[in-house]
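User: Sequence in, structure out. Go.
Assistant: Echoing your sequence, followed by the structure tokens.
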Amino acid sequence: MRYSSDKNPFVTLLLFGALVLMAVLCYQMVSNGGAEQWNILIMAGVSAFMLWMWFGTYYDIDGDELRYRSGPVNGSIDIGTIRKIEVGKTKFVGLKPALGTNGCVIHYNTYDEIYLSPKDKPAFIAALKAINPAIIIEERS
């Protein structure tokens, strides 16, 4: 089952604002005749990377495995190793394949944790609990 990432309005504004700014700068460089190919290629690459992050951030539950992807950042977690999920918490350091705030911090293995921001948190957590009923859920407000 695939769960898309929640998208924070500030992140949306920041991302698409940067894309518009780079498009305007490219247009001005080309129209003034002073555009170097490298400048446009770098801006196009950065734009493609940001769009990859925007459209390529999601979470899959496949069998007993939770897979996450956010652009080039991807990995998987054995759902049986998940100990605790803190709901409504934002993590400021560490691995954050997410575009939203107020998501879930998933604690797994002995000391590992990851921040995810599924759009439908209750369904996401219910799917994880169906596979591993021992997961402790902590609600934060």
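User: And one key feature?
Assistant: The first helix runs from residue 9 to 31.
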